[in-house]
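Review form for a predicted model. The reviewer records the input and the model, then writes brief findings.
Reviewer: anonymous (R2)
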Amino acid sequence: MILTGRPTPLGASWDGEGVNFALYSSAAQGVELCLYDASRRETARHWLPDQYDGVWHGYLPRCRPGQRYGYRVHGRYAPEEGLRCNPAKLLIDPYARQLSGGFSWNPAVFDFDPTNGDAELRINTRDSAPYVPLGVVRADSEPVRPGPRIPWSETIIYETNLRGFTMAHPCVPELQRGRFAGMRNKDVLAYIKSLGISAIELLPVHAFIDEQHLHDKGLRNFWGYNSISFFAPEPRFGNTDPVAEFREMVNAVHDAGLELILDVVFNHTGESGGVGPSLSFRGIDNLAYYRTPGDAPGEYINDSGCGNTLDADHPRVRELVIDSLRYWAGDMGVDGFRFDLATILGRSGDGYNPQHALLTEIETDPALERVKLIAEPWDPGPGGYQLGRFPGRWAEWNDRYRDTVRRFWRGDEGIAGELASRLHGSSDLFEHSGRRPHASINFVTSHDGFTLSDLVSFEHRHNQANGEDNRDGHAHNFSSNCGVEGESDDPVILYTRRRRRLNMLATLLFSQGTPMLLAGDEFGNSQDGNNNAYAQDNPVGWLDWSGVEKDSEFHAAVRGMIQVRRRCALLRQARYRHGEEDKESGWPNLQWLGPCGTTLAGDDWANLRAKAAVFAATSRAGFRAVAILINGSPKAVTYTLPGVPLESGWTLEFTSGEARAVSSDKFTWELGESSIACLCLAWGDMPGSATTD
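Model under review:
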């Protein structure tokens, strides 16, 4: 017999003697709780006996963890009015911590009759239970070991896809490949740690489904941006218990001294548009969860480009997002979140607002005060590009950084001036709101687009394998093939490509801000020119680890660059510097110099393809300066650097090409064509780096 229970917390909560079930649905006239055994055989149904403020609830004595369940929501079915209640559809609890079983594209999963040829959506009475995942009741778990809490100024992010990273890794056993267990492998984590990385950023791991058009083409969703649950981990990433295995992975990541950041998708769900499947939110309370036009509630606003848009204005949607973040940060141990299409989280009917209630709640929630918050500051909706306009605690993916660095090293005219702003941490975008350099997430490549190797090998996308006639993916990549499209054995072309890759990575790692590397770029991983490999769950999307051995020198060079950044705090300052004079040394804390050593500003610096940026600071231990020499010209250039009364001058920390001191005091240096170099200078007792405050 089911008892009344309580309306909080939402979801299925075990108290040691039974389970309380609570589901929000303002559209329901009644809710059935359906119970299943491990073989998916239905064992019982119970009407939730009470409702308070839209929350239907009931308590089952003697119900235990491991119980499979789903809901059937009874109410009006009037699609033209936005009402999609259909009790023939078994629905996933939005708060389910675990899902059991997969999803199948069967006609029964639609709440309307998909065989009806006219425009009217007629109710589909076929039972969807055999074709949808079931929720699983969970018990509370032991706390995950805390992460290292790495300051933003010391953060280096490594973006990767869990399956792509582990599927072909030589040290990962077959049964662990593509799973959480593979990512916790000691050799995998030792490799990431050896690079000098501080944080792993995983593409979405929330439970998701393959889109129907991919299923029909025999493809799979590889990236995971098609969530059907915001609490349950994707079952395909686990072996027997994906929740426990995720937590074990987090513990291993933390034990390795690394942080874990999750890419989360709170902008849409896998239910797609009005003719998508009814799996959870649509059948529970369509008008609460999704944004619809005020004069057409039967339609969907599609600011996500994926068919539907979650309604961040609705208090229950905001509650869902906050509860999900609290769960993953608290129970699951996640150290940060990257929010896909984050502008949607701040959009109301009248547009984006950086003071939107959901953004404010995320930023100020006490349970989230220590996690890193990263926005992808754009979406396809109207006014969707909002780079630099997120609130104070937020960092943002900086695509202007990406495009500027790509274009400069490609040789584009008129871009050299903007490079100064990007080296400086994009103060023009972030300082006005009181934010610091770390707010700029600098990247040259990400999962979305060409890999670094493909960026210098292809001028055009080659996405035919996606089955969309090569129309998908970015058309404007600011890439160059250096003379030949695709693979080449020409030593001149190979040399040029290798140099350009080093130049872009060095620029990334020597810029102020937070660098993000795409996994595999450090050893030349390629996707054969596919710049939208979201459907390539195969060797195209999986990392080819043979590159580590094929070009061990390049791999070592990337490790060296990261070590330079980690050693020199001047490359990762916590505050913006604008050339203020240091009282002890008399040096400006930032100088923009021409090759001859004269201070330049504005157009003078912008019009040069050969230039230098010098950062300096004094601490109680002494003085240190770092110079970044940039030569985007086709010939060697001699640089005169600032001098001080020392017996020895600047020392070379890294160069992508040929660099040599041409004066005995080491204040004059020659840098080869199309190259970048980093030099350091210090005096005094310098056991560590200069202060960054």
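Findings: Confidence is low (pLDDT under 50) at residues 685-693.
Further findings: The CA atoms of residues 9 and 22 lie 7 Å apart.
Recommendation: see findings above.
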